[in-house]
Amino acid sequence: MSERVGTLTRRNLLKTAGSAAGAAALGGCLTGDGTDDSPSGELSTAFGNCWMCSHNCGQKASVRDGTVVNLTGVDGHPRGSAGPDTEGTLCPKGLAQLDKTHDPKRIKEPHIRDEDGNLQKVSWDEAFQYTAERLVEFDENNGAETFLDATSWAETSIFRTIWRDLYGSPERISRGIHVCAGPTFVTGGMMGVGSNNRVPDYQNSEYIIAWGRNVLNSFAGQFEAKGVLEAIENNGATLVTIDPQHTITAQKSEEWMPIEPRTDGALALAMANVIIEEERYDADFVENHTYGFEAYREAAAEMPPERAAEITGLDADQIRRVARGFAEAAPQAGISVWTGTAQAGNGWKATQNITALNGLVGNVDRPGGLRLWKYPATASFGEVCEQDYTNRAEYKEPALKKYDEYSDYPVRHIEGIAHNLVPEMVENGHVNGIVCHHDDPLKDGNAEAWIEAVEAMDLVISIDAYWNGVSRRADVVLPEATQLEKDTLGTGNWSAYPNHKWVTGAKAAVEPQWNTLPDFDILTGIADAMAGETGNDDWTIFQQWDSHEEFIDDQLSTLDLTLEELDSGETNYELVEEYDYEQWRDDDGFTFRFDLDQIDSFAKAAEEAGMDTAPEWIPPGTYGDETTEEYPLEFTDVRSVFFSHGSNQPHERLRDQFAKRNRLSGEDYRGNYLYLNPEDAAERGIETGDMVAIESKTGSGELMAVVTQRARPGFVTAEYGFGQTSAITTGEDAREKSADGMNTMMLHDMQMDPITGQVDRHIAVDVAPAGGD
């Protein structure tokens, strides 16, 4: 083993990770210092696919002497432009790859935890061997079925083969369903349109509703914001924003509906009420291509606009006006919906009621409406793997479905796991280890319990570019190369090309920096070590490929493409297949479902949760928090164009830009901000720039206040993803680490959607000046 570095142990983790100063010391202690001289050689061009929010906007990189010196977008890129012959651009997250690639704060070499509990540097061979030994030991002592795969952000598809098929774990936490927008994804699938219910055909639309989405500021690729603006300019489209906050998207909208939080389901039913009562719906589509309309009609009849106005705080005339505008523009009318309506305890019904509007006006897979986007037909792992192997997880049942301890959770009928329940599963001995890949679940909900759970696990493996709450606590830390340092293949569905499937690919723009490796090489390195440690030839299946590029070429073989061909010329994408609208006409099995009583798993879950299978109104607090006299404010966290998940927050330039946007760049503070209305601020003696304490019934923390009319009275928000994931303290100790902001999920406990396990991020809180009255 190499020389031990530092004295980080499990016993002192909370103390060391607790402050920004401690984090800086940790980075220096474990990774060393030193930067390269400024590059001065010839300039060359390379490509990349941005993975900061996993949506693959194309990047063109200028490289000099092995250093990325500039990044721009790729013109005409499916995700990074408005379509053919348009400029490709990057948002601040995408541009941050320039910082991230050569960031001296990155994890620079592998580490393992020794017998004394210290993390120490080792070689890659030592790290792989140690990982294999610990995985074999874990399987012998606990069973591989108790090892949790939390690898949502891997940029290669083989992680599922590694942890599920070969190692044998059926436990996988899905970021998309459990902590992003489970009700949106799963209801879309059950209703017949899949997760396509998120993204409409923007450019062909004449009426766009951004429902709980700030689509001009937080998007799934540049094509979204550009598509909305193109629709307004070219089609004269109407943009409507439904959001408690006056966002950038609301600012550009013809209609802003400042809805009371968590009442979206009532608004959707009231719009349906208007459309049905005034016979503005598509009767032919409803009659011939839907199921359960009468149950839907009954639910809508109970929510006239006047009743919805009392619930939502909106004007009944505005509700009617928007409903009529949407129906009149249909089918060239689309709803953009994602996390905003899903991250609430009653988010399932909100999403069901919103999605139902598409079936009502018949905009399904028609230009400008809800497009049934399609992925390209790249080859699966099973199709390209030349070696047979045993799937060790094939007949293993996830603990949530297997054990009686979880019989009170309706989610077990729909999902195999739920983020908030993992600490309970650890306590019950049903989860004993975890692998996290470029993710920090300690910031995704139920944070304090998650921290204790990770501390209690027998084996923690972190594959990441940065030190975070998991990697600081890990037994194995494997430093991953960033996106511009690896070969990548991106495939997607929605984009600026509504009639084409597409792929995007890029070779590494620069060599892996320091002693890091791409994720494909890390995972195959673990597999090779497991082959030697177990003697099981199944683990040798990756040896048929000498590189990730060869593996990608096999994936692309169904499209008669290679990575070399994608990453050549002036672009790094290819439009590969064309497909038409109204695909449901040729699909005998297609049915748009208003009522979900035919889906047995949902019927069971709904019955246990006390909800109907048809659309209905479920008030806030039925599931999750209600505000009280002690906690009179409703809090939720939000996303912005600057940050997305844990790996962006370390970059000082983004923090500076964020502070500048909030007109607080003169302050030393570079954390997240709490946005609150002047009425709520005045009542508490709070002004912009003050440090404030926010408290729920289960947690507390401090961050800086921004007083703004854009915030709705009684509703406060903060940016997601900041803060050290350690115990929150008060007084001077808290102020020392306040510059790093706050992990907002320290306020959170068990609140969740009962059907999908989606974390409910609406929390009852109170706010006061820091330090007391």
From TrEMBL:
By its UniProt entry, which SUPFAM superfamilies does this protein fall under? ADC-like (SSF50692), Formate dehydrogenase/DMSO reductase, domains 1-3 (SSF53706)
Q: Which organism is it from?
A: Halapricum salinum
Which family does the entry's similarity section mention? Belongs to the prokaryotic molybdopterin-containing oxidoreductase family.
Q: Which Gene3D superfamilies match?
A: 2.40.40.20, 3.40.50.740, ADC-like domains, Dimethylsulfoxide Reductase, domain 2
Q: What is this protein called?
A: Molybdopterin oxidoreductase
The source's superkingdom equals Archaea
Any single GO molecular-function term of the entry would be: iron-sulfur cluster binding
4Fe-4S Mo/W bis-MGD-type domain location, by residue?
A: 43-105
- Annotated keywords: Iron, Iron-sulfur, Metal-binding, Molybdenum, Oxidoreductase, Signal
Cofactors demanded by this protein: Mo-bis(molybdopterin guanine dinucleotide)
The record, for SMART domains, names:
Molybdop_Fe4S4
